[in-house]
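Posting this for the archive.
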Amino acid sequence: MISIPYKAKQFLVFLAKLLIVGGALYFIYNQLVHNEKLDWNQFLALLERKKSIAGIAFILSLSFLNRFLEILKWQNLAQKLQPISLSKATEQVLAALTAGLFTPNGIGEYAGKALYFPKKNTGEVVFLNLICNGIQMILSILFGIVGLLILGYWLEVGILLLVVLGLGLLFFLLKKITIKGYSLNQFFEKINALPKKMHQRNLVLAVLRYLTFSHQYYFLFLAFDVNMPYFTLMGTIAAVYFLASSLPTFQFLDFAVKGGVSVYFFGILGINEWIIVFISMLMWFLNIVLPVLAGSVYVFRFKPQLHKTV
């Protein structure tokens, strides 16, 4: 086995940090500056007309609350391995978010969080992160189905439910089949082994988080002078999040994917395309870009355990 010198290890770690942070900043800049669908003149004119410091502070507070609830979710689940402080949970969540920016559906977050724990706990960290993200996905599906029903997509929802029931039946039939020592039955047993209070807290925080970012979307539409019935707008937001989150994508392309789905659904309501695109961009900026910028600091500060070779 080839042994890498200690100084070389330090350089490789620094290079990895530089690539992650540099790449994140480049893609953020590219999306904001070179996206032809963003009409900055109309946005600046609207901002000049509104000039509401309280409104801006309120929208920013929802972004903070959204990420804070995610941090609390991870802190709650990480207790299964070891008690971690709020500041440590914040570091792990934001650094992992930055590391997962270039991976499909944020898979890199799993590896990012695992680096903060002993190597023997890697499997457990991945499992807990799956529980953390899984409940959010389940809520997106449930609220999304309700949203589609509100919008009148009864047939589509019926077909979707049949597919879900079919997959559920398939998982039930295959749950005892073992592949390389693992089975769905073991996975479900592992989920049930977690304390009930941990599950309850995870669910409550996930619901609060979903309500936070979906209403942030809603209030942004109000800020752009879009006046529509509450349930129509919220139903469309739920449908957009459900369908967009079902598509495999990268975090840095989140704006483009959600923007495309949003243009279709909100366009049906007669909302101007530039408003839809700009609100999608703002949601991406407030809930992905700002946390990634903060996470970049943690990525540079991260010090992995490197062993000197004698």
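Residues 306-310 have pLDDT under 50 and may be disordered. Residues 122-150 form the longest helix (29 residues).
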